[in-house]
Amino acid sequence: AGPPHLGVGDWAWTPPLSSAGPELVRTAWNHLLKFCIASLVMTYPSLCEVSIASMICKEFDDGGAYLAQDLEMRCWTETEHTRQHRVVASLGFVMTPFLIGFPLWIYAVLVTKIKRNELMSTDSLERYGPMYSGFKPHIAWWSAVEIAKQLTLEALNQILRPLGPGITLWAYAVSYTHLR
Fold first, then answer.
1. N or C: which end of the chain has fewer CB within 10 A?
2. Residue in 172, 130, 177 with CA at minimum distance from that of residue 152
């Protein structure tokens, strides 16, 4: 029997069939996970830049060192700005395990899916498909290497930036040829 007749213009919600419920939940979960992973992949370079830069101080001729991201914050002195610098630097250190762990997690998931021959399953395609859509199945894990390369290049940029643009360009040229 169907839902009760309510008349013209009335609306009644009918719950999904019990067999469709778990499938609907699984599909919704897969799409949510895909959205979260895609969001992290898109924001990863910015997170790397902000996290690494929050830990770097730049020294000047006056003998003082200042936070590279905010030159009003003096490093290694006891002032209000130093306490703020410690908070900012602490957030950078807290983000470090995520910055390293995210590409490792992607690598572990994709290698596991490859070994179990589950890479082309519906769940894997819905959840992680955009991560490896441009790669052959046996090298789907390369997307994790590409993400780790972003972290490496951003760390290199932040560390070498105070040494001048010549050193930074040279380092990029070397890293580009070796990491490609």
1. N
2. 172
